[in-house]
Amino acid sequence: MKLLKDILYKVAILEVHGTTNVEVSDISFDSRSVIEGGVYVAQKGLKVDGHDFIEGAIAKGAVAIICEDLPQEMSTAITFVKVKSTHEALAFMAANFYDNPSEDIQLVGVTGTNGKTTTVTLLYNLFKKLGYKVGLLSTVVNYIDEKEVKATHTTPDSLSVNKLLSQMVAAGCEYCFMEVSSHAVVQNRVLGLHFKGGVFTNISHDHLDYHKTFDEYIAAKRGFFTQLGKDSFALSNKDDKRAEVMLQESKAKKNYYAVKAAADFKCKIMESNFTGLLLKIDDQEVWCPIIGKFNAYNLTAVYATAILLGQNKIEVLTALSSLRPVEGRFEYIRVNDISGIVDYAHTPDALENVLKTIKEIRTGNEQVITVVGCGGDRDTTKRPLMAGIAAELSDRVILTSDNPRTEDPQQIIEEMKVGLDPVNKKKANAITDRKEAIRMACALAKSGDIILVAGKGHENYQEINGVRNHFDDMEILQETLNELNA
Length: 486
Ligand SMILES: CC(=O)N[C@H]1[C@@H](OP(=O)(O)OP(=O)(O)OC[C@H]2O[C@@H](n3ccc(=O)[nH]c3=O)[C@H](O)[C@@H]2O)O[C@H](CO)[C@@H](O)[C@@H]1O[C@H](C)C(=O)N[C@@H](C)C(=O)N[C@H](CCC(=O)O)C(=O)O
Ligand SMILES: Nc1ncnc2c1ncn2[C@@H]1O[C@H](COP(=O)(O)OP(=O)(O)OP(=O)(O)O)[C@@H](O)[C@H]1O
Ligand SMILES: N[C@H](CCC[C@H](N)C(=O)O)C(=O)O
Ligand SMILES: [Mg+2]
Description:
By secondary structure, the chain is of the alpha/beta class. The chain is 34% helix and 24% strand.
């Protein structure tokens, strides 16, 4: 048990009503999960205002309420603390409650529009191969050493992050690699954490539903590097236009990696094909069974991070050559001379990279057939862009549903179609049912052709109106190609 006054350390307090000398059993920012003796932190959200649930939290046994607006009537039996920001307060309280676990583990955060999951997962696997106990926080899954914990967000809320980090410390993990999303920076999910390093992959069009402008999105990502201290390193992709802007306000030691520009960590792509990449990193050739030129960036970022964390160059390069691809990222199968690729490309930039990669590494003039959709309740401006890119860089494109969530899938497809010029329109079909769309792509494919199913990668569900039904792109692709081959 901890005292409220101790977990409020570093919180910008405006007013206190009652005593902070009270023991607290738990912290919660959801009134529904408050337990007897717990503290409820009321947050103003995008959908509802947590202040409206203070009564409910008290009824469940809260002994203290942390809020931005004090209620009209305050029971004298419990403590009310008015703070400047409850999102900020939660982050500091969580760190204090779990004994600042980020101080006891080498924590590295990776941010950027694309490549975060790939980079942190490769780092997790690499450090395990180097003999360490490691933690992972990613879009796909969280790991406390070998123990799997379901991931609900790319970056969990500050309470969950600190809890997971404390479990990693208790399990003896020496390193943790985590994704830092732009939402997480804005919502203070990583505030107060001690990062040993921060990595920037790239920035392009995404999440403009949330951040409104591209400048605001850049500022959100930059905020992560501004948070890093003098004892940390920052590693940025020199080939990205925003490489330096990202680190502008950072006190961390700055390092750059690149494939094109001159940089501290330099990679040259010697060969790229459907079995992997032959790279020259720091003048050493290394073969990696991971497909796609964009992965040369991820692999170089992984290498540089390992070196900046003090690892041995040759040991790192050796381990790098035995890393497996990440689930749902350029996953490749071949059935009866037809190639199938499942990739999580759900942004215009990622889709363009994947399609360009496919065109670069195909051996002849095989047709590329792309199946793609866009998620509902997400950035609508990427819809026409993604359809345009898919059609421009494919021979045939089938527009379909992704996760429609609460939107009408047909309407999403209509918004995608706006991005097709008259030539591209001729290459496009629309089939709302994603399974049927994949089946049609398979039926159209002739020997040698390449089918790309983009947007859902590792996801094993399709979300329609709040219900997640089992859905697996690779399962359907494999099944259909096998059927046609039988
Ligand atoms: C847009 C967004 O980021 N929303 C996040 C935000 O929700 P919100 O502000 O809308 O919260 P709200 O529903 O209005 O509720 C306000 C407050 O009232 C509380 N409440 C609510 C109801 C109740 O009965 N009692 C109660 O106490 C809630 O717990 C909350 O504290 O705060 C919640 C709690 O931390 C998050 O779960 C939620 O993520 C939603 C589910 C989400 O979909 N987020 C996505 C967009 C996201 O975060 N994505 C990023 C990046 C993805 C990537 O590119 O990889 C990620 O990191 O995953
Ligand atoms: N370094 C990169 N540059 C450009 N595109 C990339 C890069 N790495 C991966 N991609 C593409 O982006 C897709 C998503 O990759 P990944 O899951 O690693 O990114 P992410 O940043 O974690 O995405 P999310 O924000 O959804 O969590 C991949 O399937 C691939 O198409
Ligand atoms: N982390 C991203 C993933 C998008 C994946 C795509 N399949 C979709 O559902 O839109 C998001 O939540 O915006
Ligand atoms: Mg991710």
